[in-house]
Write the C-alpha cells for this entry.
Amino acid sequence: MTRLSGGLIDRSKPLTFTFDGKRYSGFAGDTLASALLAQDVRLIGRSFKYHRPRGVFAMGSEEPNALVELRSGARQEPNTRATVAELFDGLEAKSQNRIGSLSFDLMAVNDLLSPFFAAGFYYKTFMWPRAFWERVYEPLIRRAAGLGSLSRLPDPDAYDKGFLHCDLLVAGAGPAGIMAALTAARAGLRVILADEDFALGGRLLAETHTLNDLPATAWLSETEAELRARPNLRILTRTTVFGAFDHGIYGAVERVGDHLSAPASVRQTLWRISAKRMILSAGATERHIPFANNDRPGVMQASALRGFANRFAACAGRRVAVFTNNDDGHRTALDLMAKGVEVVAVIDPREGGKPSGKYPLFSGSVVSNTRGRLGLSAIEITREGRAQWVECDLLGVSGGWNPNVHLASHHRGRPLWDAGLQSFVPPRDLPVGMSVAGAAAGAFSTHAALQSGVEAAQKAFDLDQSPAIPRAEDAPYRLSPLWHVAGKSRAWVDFQNDVTVKDITLAHQENMRPVEHLKRWTTLGMATDQGKTANVTALAVMAQLTGKPIPETGTTIFRPPYTGVSLGVLGGGDTGPEFRPTRLTPTHTWAKAQGAVFVEVGQWMRAQYFPRAGETHWRESVDREVLATRAGVGLCDVTTLGKIDVQGKDAGIFLDRIYCNAMASLKVGMTRYGLMLREDGHAYDDGTCARLSERNYVVTTTTAQAAAVFRHMEFARQCLWPDLDVHLISTTDAWAQISVAGPRARALLERVVDGFDLSNAAFPFMACAELSICGGLRARLFRISFSGELAYELAVPARYGAALMARLVESGADLGATPYGTEALGVLRIEKGHAAGNELNGQTTAQMLGMGKMVSLKKDSIGAVLSRREGLAQDQRRLVGLMPLGGEALAAGAHLFAQGAVLSTETDQGWITSACYSPHLASPIALGFLERGAARLGEIVVAANPLQGAQTLVRVVSPHFIDPEGGRLRD
Amino acid sequence: MTDLTPICALGAQDPLRESYGAYRLSERADIALASLAGGAEAPFGLTLPAAGGFAQNGDYAALWTGVSQWLIFGFGMAARDISAEISGGYVTEQTDAWAVFEIEGPALERLLEKLVNIDPQRLQTGMGLRTGFHHMSISLARPAPERLFILGMRSAAGSLHHALATALGRL
C-alpha cells in the first residue's frame, strides 16, 4: 500500500535509503520502521533462537523484533531498533542474525529443532563432553544466536559529557510531562523537559484525539512555542533519561548526531543531571496477548498499528484485524477505517460488546492461531471451541497497558499491583525527589494524564497556580484480563529472546517458579529490550500456573539503563593518550629536544634515559649515565617529588607528629631525612624535610605518594589537630627541581650561583638555603643525595626549569655534565641502598628498612605506638643487598629461600624488591627483604622465580653497594 | 635580572591565544600568584572574600581557597614576587604552581555545563570555586559575566588545554 493520507511526515522532503541493499524512499519525520511499513515491508529480521521471520511490533523504544544493523564501515551499529532510528538521506540498514537471505535463512532449521531449545537448554544440552564447551558448543551457539555483528573497527565518532542542574527534571514529554513542565516553568522554576523522541507530544502524536476541540498538534505547537521561549526551561529531545542514581542525579543520553548520516560534531552526549525534583512521565507500553504463532510479521501492538497510520501515514497491509481485551483496542479499528483501511475483524474476548464503528466484531472470541510463511496471511478466530479462519495481513493486539515504571524502581522500590488497572504501578518508595505522572502512574486517559502532570508539579513545589488544562478525552479504561490464549502450538511471550508460554510452563514444571529463577531459566526479559513487552505477561502466565495472584508471584525490579547506552558515551569522550591527564615536567620540552625516551610514572611523563648516537640498547645509555654521574656530574629533573610548604607557629610540633623521627629540633638552614608511618605502624612514605625559617618547612614526598601524603597531612591538620597553627600548601608544580649529583657537582654549581659559598664548611651535607642564581633568579638549594654522591637539588620557579637544565648541561660540558633519566636514577639509588616505592609498598616497617631506631621514643607520632606492637616489632626481615654468584640477572618479585629448602609459602624467607644491573660493580644487584637479613651477610641463599622456572644463587651483602660509610656525600 | 629565559606552562615562550568562534582562550602567563593563609590583613586593598568568592581590586584579586586561605592574583606581575609584598599571615609564592587559562565569550553557562559539575548559578560574577575537570582538580573564578579563569596544575597544562579546546570547539 502507498502512504495513507495525513500524518506528521514532511512530504516536501523525500529521503532515500537502503534495506538489505534495496533502495526505498521515505520522508523527513519518518523512522526506518515507518518508512519500511509504508512500503509494505513487513519482514525485517530473524528471531534470536529459532530464526523465525519477524517484523515491526511496536512503535517506540520497547521494540523487541525489528533490530537492524545500521550504517556501514566503522559506523556500523548492530541491534538498532528500526522504530527509533530516524530516517536520513542515504541511510543504510541491513537485517541481521541470518545465514543466507532474510527471506531464506538457513538457520531457520532451528525452528524445526525447537524441542531441543526449550527453557534451560543451555544447562541441559551442552554438559558433555566437558572439553567441547569452549571449543565447540560456545562458538556454535554464539554464531547461531548472536544478534548483530560488530565492525571491529575503531569508533570514528566523538562523544561528549556534560552536567545540568535544575529544579525539576521531567522525563517524558507526553501530555503529562508537558503539563508538569509548563506548570513549574510558569512558576519560575528551572525545568528540563527530556524526551527520547525527536518531537514533543508522546502519545498525542500517534492519536487522533483533540485538545480544545482542535487536533492535538495545534495545542502542541502553541505550547512548545511557549516552552521554548522560556529561558528557565530547557527542552532536550532525542534524550533518554536512562537511570535514577543517588542524591537526585539522573543519567541521560542525548543522541546529538544519530539522526544524521555522520555527526556534525559529537555523536552523543552523556548528561549528568542534578535535579531537586523529578517527574517521571514516561507513559505506558501496550502489552500483547500470547496465542499460537503470534510472532509473525504483521502482528503488532494495536496502538502501534494505529500510531504508524496516524503519525506516519504508514500501514503495511490492506486487510486489518484487531484482537483486544479492552476498549482502547477498538480505537485502532476506528482510526484505520478513518484512513480508508479495511478492518476485517475486531476480536474481543469480552461478551456482549457492541462495535463502536462499522466493523465486524467477534465478541467472546479469541485469536487462536495464524498463518503466513514470511508474514501474516490469516488468523484463526475461536469462539467456544469453534474456529474459523479470516484472511488478513495485519493484526493489532491489545492486552492492556503497562505503566513504564522502570525509573521509579531504580532504587529497589517494588512496583505495586493495581487490580483495577490489572497492571503494576509505581512503587510507594520512589527514589527521593521523584514523583510519577500520566500513564506511567496509571492515568491512562488524555485528560487524566494532563491533569496528573499539573498536580505532580504543584505537589512537588507547593504551587497553587495551574495552567489551563485543555479539554481532552477522558474515556474510562475498561479491560477484562486475558493473559494468553491456551493452545498446543508455541505462543510467544518474549519475542526478542524467543521465550514462549511453553517455556514458562516447563520452568514451572522444573520448579523454576520464583520470578528470578524463571527469568534465568528461560532468559525471559534478558534481551536488549529488557522484556519491556514481555515481563508482566510472563508473570501473569506463571501466576496462572501456580494458582497464585500476580502480586504474590512476584514483580520485576528494573535497573538502569532504561534503554541501551553505548559504551562510547559512558566513557565520556576521550580515548587514547588524552584518556586521562598527563603531567609534564618543567624540562619536558628540553628533554624532548634532546631525544629523551619518556616513561609514564603515574600521571607524569618522565625522561627515562637519553640515548646518544651509536647507542643501540637502553642499557648502554643507562650505564653511561650512571658512570658519568659517579665520575663527573649528572643532572636529573626531580620535580615530580611532592613538595609541601608547611608554615605556622606550630609547624615543628605538627611535623613531629607526622614524621616518626624528630623535626621540631631541625635547625634553620638544615634538611633531614624523614620517615612517615601509617596509623597501623607500617612505613608510609619517606623524603626530606628542610627548614627554611623558624616557621617554614618544606616537606618532600615520593612521586607516587605526593597527593596521598598531602591529603594525609591536611586530614591531620584539619581533623586531628585543628588547634595547631599550621598551614599547608602544595608547591610541587611551582618549583622545577634538578638533582646535580657527582663528585663535580659543586664545581658545576659554582658556575651558576650568584656569589654563594658552597664550601663544605659554609654549606655542609644536609644544608639548605634560599639564594639567587644566574644573575638574580630566586632559587632554593638543598644538599641532599639519593645517589650516594656529593649531590644537591636546585629548585627554581618552574618556568625557568628548562633554561636552567640547558644552562647546567652547557656550562658543565667540561666537567662531564650528563643528563640522566629515571632508569639511571633507579640504578644509582639501588647501588646506594636507598628505599623507594618498591621497598615502601605498604607492607614494610621502619625496622625492616633498617631504620627502626628512627621511630622516636621521646615523642608521639602517627603510627609510633602500633609500630611497637607484638607481631610487627618481632618481624625479623631486614633490607639486604643481593648479588648473584654467577652474574645472572635478578628479577624483582623473586622470593628468597635457604639453600636446599622446598619452595613453599612456609619456607619463604623474603623477596627481592628492586633489581638492576650495576655498571659500577659490573654485576646485576638487587635489594630485598630477608629473614634475619642483617645477621646473614655473606650467606648464600636462593632467589626463586617459580613462575618462570628460575632459581639463582645469590650472596647476601650490605644494601649499600657503594660507599657504605657515606664519605662521598660529605666531601 | 636573570639571563635565563622562562617558558609558559604549555612549553612555548609566548602564551597561547586561540579563538573558537565567539570565544577566546588565552594562557595567562602574566599573573603572579601567592597563597595567603591565617588571620591575615587583606593585602593590596582587597576585600578577602568568603567561601565561594572571588574579589577584584584593580590589578589584584583574591580567590577563596579554603578556611582562612586565599589565592592572591597580581595581574601583569608574574615577573615580580608578590608574596614578598604581603605582610602578615602565611604566604607562599604560587605563580608557577598553576597554569591559568582565561576564556572570554558570551553565554559561558553553555560552556560551563560541558566542563564542570557546577550549577552555573553558583559561579556568577564575583564567585570562584574549586572542582574537578577532566580528572583534574581545578579552580574556577568568574571576574566578569563573559570572562572565566580556569586554574589547573601547571604540569597538566597540556591536558587542561586539550580538554578546554575540545569543549570550546564543540560549542
Summary: The mean pLDDT of chain B is 95. Chain B has two helices and eleven strands. The longest strand of chain B covers residues 136-144. Chain B touches chain A through 48 residues (CB under 8 Å).
